[in-house]
Amino acid sequence: MNSLDNLRVNNPLVICYTNDVVKNFTANGLLSLGASPAMSQAPEEATDMLTPANALLINIGTLTKDREKDILTIAKTANAVGTPVVFDPVAVGASQYRKDFCKTFLQEVKVSVIKGNASEILALINSDAKMKGTDSDQNLNTIEIAKEAYKRLKCAIVITGREDIVIQDNQIYKLNNGSPLLAKVTGAGCLLGAVIASFIQKNEKISINYLVEAISIYNIAAEKAELHAKHEGPGTFMTLLLDALYHMTYDDYLNQSDQQEVQ
Question: Which residues are annotated as a binding site?
Answer without folding.
Answer: 39, 115, 160, 187
